[in-house]
Amino acid sequence: MRARWRCLALLLLLGLGGAAAAEEDPYLWLEEVQGERALAWVREQQQAAEQALQARPGQAALAEGLREVLASPQRLAPAQQLGEQLYNFWRDAAHPRGLWRRTTLASYRSAAPQWQTVLDLDRLAQEEGERWVWGGASCLPPQARRCLLSLSRGGGDAHVLREFDTVSGRFVDVAAGGFALPEAKGGASWVDADTLSVYTDFGPGSMTASGYPRQVRLWKRGTPLAQAPVLFEAGTDDVGMWTWADDAPGRATHLIERRTSFFAGEQYLLRAGRLVKLPKPDDASATPFGDQLLIELRSDWEVGGRRHAAGSLLAIALERFLAGGRQFQTLFAPTPGSALQSHTVLRSAVLLLRMDDVKQRLSEWRYTQGRWRARALPTGELGSLSVTALAGQRSDRYLLTRSDFLTPATLELAEAGRDARQTLQQLPAFFDASSHAVEQLHARSRDGTAVPYFIVKPRGVPPPAGGWPSLLYGYGGFEISMKPGYSGVLGRGWLSQGGVYVLANLRGGGEFGPRWHQAALREHRQRSFDDFIAVAEDLIARGITSPKRLGIMGGSLGGLLTSVALVQRPELFGAVVSQVPLTDMRRYHRLLAGASWIEEYGNPDLPEQWAYISKYSPYHNSQAGVVYPRVLYTSSTRDDRVHPAHARKMVARLQAQGHEVLYWENTEGGHAGAATIEQQVKLWALSYGFLAEQLMR
């Protein structure tokens, strides 16, 4: 049955059954990203949006305030240790495309680190006539002299890969044997100094229906890429292939990952040129740690005489596991109110970040004398934590970022085995938070489920008549958690203007682990929308706000969320901002990376699945004659993940139906919507200016 379903899905993805949809859609021409007619329409819309919003009183001051935040030299500068030095990528007003720079650990720990520029992206873009956007670096351990740099044109997911010498400060000439890959959604990992495992577009037939590589090849320096032997080949209906490696001294591990769907797949160890499959559940993920293997579960697993719950983190000796052993030690087991958010491997410890009722806690686990032992780490009562290994498994040092809605983030240097941490940097207070308070509340969704949400509001002051101007933000998908965190942009753009901010923790997210996510998958997607609507209704019922003063915002899947809320319950809202959204759920799987999300939303080419998708697809459910709040849609021409046609077509349809809609599309920026500080300033100034105009009158 599964094979037959895949065959049918593939045929439909290739076009069978699509003619009727094409005949029904008058705006297919807007799917031509660089089409002359489409771009002329985009320019007209962009000009209209800017004219409507930039003339607003106070708009120039708003933009300048946001510029002070986004271009501030006091921003945090997280670093990654490569070899003996620490590297950081930095943008400021003088370097809008950014600097890749480095310093020593001693300097990084000082009050004023001294940075050396390794690569000036603005200069490179000017010399090469390209709008380069930084995509990261992968360096060959342990010296990290040779690195693979990812550069995208305009900020899309597709990028070029070029070998760089950090000693000479130059790219390695291809004629001299330097590695280079043309623009594609893909990448490579170091196997050794002269070998890469490569996943990229190798030509016709080498990409999946989702637009990702389906082959991994071993590429030897000095040989043609086309002649590199295929190490593994996935199916065309898989999501794609990836490779990655850790660089633990004396025990480096190279992994090949085949994703059969967004949340499931196979993992292989690369050993002496051969692949060794890890016999784990398909939807579990494995991480090597020394001679141990960590396995995180997304569904229940009955094995070795025990039942391990979805959301658990298990540990076992790697070789014992490969030999058939299934007696695990449990590092984390979920409860109804708790979930594992991440685990970070260091040289001799594993850091576990858990969430209890959307509040985070950190613990350190060590494997000694044949057993795992844990200790809690003091982190205070701040609302959001982020952990990054400073040098992967080559060190026990890590960076800890802490913040909440009202407390500027701090960046701290820590080390496994020690409680003491050094505060390296702290954001300045970009807005006066002393008059605000944070409260966690719960709404009851349509089916009775309690949905938590945070509200940032004036301290000790009752709401005025008609309530406060309020902005509700949500996401609700892909097991991604929404957490309290400090944002100078939000503070300057909204809170300091008199607005209230609300963050909803919807089903579909990861706040309560896999079960919370899976509760809103496919045919249950409406639950996430119901949760969002329930929070809006709860805010109104409590008198915190009123429909004419309640705005909503979301991006990507959150853009779908806000568009659904617009169409299903327009009377609840006074303004909608939808950024890089999905809207056309009939064709989403045919556009760019959309096919990779079928596990999340379902396949609209299967009648029984389109039956439930069609009920919420915003593009198909908007109507003339209904009073909708004013809407601002934003997108990016260079977004090669969520096609800009989703926003374009929704705007065109709403306008044709007589609704008041503004549209602003940035020419670059990828899925982030902006590639430089000035582009970010314009995006957020337009968004918050629009909300202020609609909700604060």
From TrEMBL:
<feature type="signal peptide">
    <location>
        <begin position="1"/>
        <end position="22"/>
    </location>
</feature>
<dbReference type="GO" id="GO:0006508">
    <property type="term" value="P:proteolysis"/>
</dbReference>
<keyword id="KW-0720">Serine protease</keyword>
<dbReference type="Pfam" id="PF02897">
    <property type="entry name" value="Peptidase_S9_N"/>
</dbReference>
<dbReference type="InterPro" id="IPR002470">
    <property type="entry name" value="Peptidase_S9A"/>
</dbReference>
<keyword id="KW-0732">Signal</keyword>
<dbReference type="GO" id="GO:0070012">
    <property type="term" value="F:oligopeptidase activity"/>
</dbReference>
<dbReference type="InterPro" id="IPR029058">
    <property type="entry name" value="AB_hydrolase_fold"/>
</dbReference>
<feature type="domain" description="Peptidase S9 prolyl oligopeptidase catalytic">
    <location>
        <begin position="494"/>
        <end position="695"/>
    </location>
</feature>
<feature type="domain" description="Peptidase S9A N-terminal">
    <location>
        <begin position="24"/>
        <end position="238"/>
    </location>
</feature>
<dbReference type="GO" id="GO:0004252">
    <property type="term" value="F:serine-type endopeptidase activity"/>
</dbReference>
<protein>
    <submittedName>
        <fullName>Prolyl oligopeptidase family serine peptidase</fullName>
    </submittedName>
</protein>
<dbReference type="InterPro" id="IPR023302">
    <property type="entry name" value="Pept_S9A_N"/>
</dbReference>
<dbReference type="InterPro" id="IPR001375">
    <property type="entry name" value="Peptidase_S9_cat"/>
</dbReference>
<dbReference type="GO" id="GO:0005829">
    <property type="term" value="C:cytosol"/>
</dbReference>
<keyword id="KW-0378">Hydrolase</keyword>
<dbReference type="Pfam" id="PF00326">
    <property type="entry name" value="Peptidase_S9"/>
</dbReference>
<dbReference type="InterPro" id="IPR051167">
    <property type="entry name" value="Prolyl_oligopep/macrocyclase"/>
</dbReference>
<keyword id="KW-0645">Protease</keyword>
